[in-house]
Amino acid sequence: DSGVTQTPKHLITATGQRVTLRCSPRSGDLSVYWYQQSLDQGLQFLIQYYNGEERAKGNILERFSAQQFPDLHSELNLSSLELGDSALYFCASSVEDSAYEQYFGPGTRLTVT
Amino acid sequence: AQKVTQAQTEISVVEKEDVTLDCVYETRDTTYYLFWYKQPPSGELVFLIRRNSFDEQNEISGRYSWNFQKSTSSFNFTITASQVVDSAVYFCALSEEYNFNKFYFGSGTKLNVKP
Question: What's the rounded Cα separation, in Å, for the pair A80 and A38?
């Protein structure tokens, strides 16, 4: 158990809908990363926050947004969902900002029908 | 172009065999970090190692060893005397100086260790 929690574990929704994925980092970690893992795209970095501030952006679609709250938990919002958004979404946390080892949560499996 | 290439999609070995997983990276930065992560069937990625670009010493941790060669831009991972519990997907990742927070993962190598 990495200490990173993600909810929900599974999510099934329809195209066009909006969902929110939640992540709580390990105690003491200030940095939160979001990743998307799909069969065709592999593991893609989406976005990173450190102590409430956005620090790095990867291949995140405009329909997706995220934030990190004062208690350091983070939420990833996915809107106008498409079939291709079906994937496993991982959250990871790290103690510092920048190139440290990350501790991954169990992931949220999103299925868009 | 892929920043991290793991050419071996899937490898199958028999228990107790040694196996090497290849990782080739591409970067123009002189300062960067390389990582290996393991994703067992349960799904959660587990950190294995972090290496900075200035440290080319090979590292050994139990049955695991890593060979970092800047000359060939490779960071290969060897499992000695493999065990069934080593069955997983292994990912190599790169973090570059211009933005250390942006991680590039390879496509992963699925290792099957048969009893």
Answer: 18
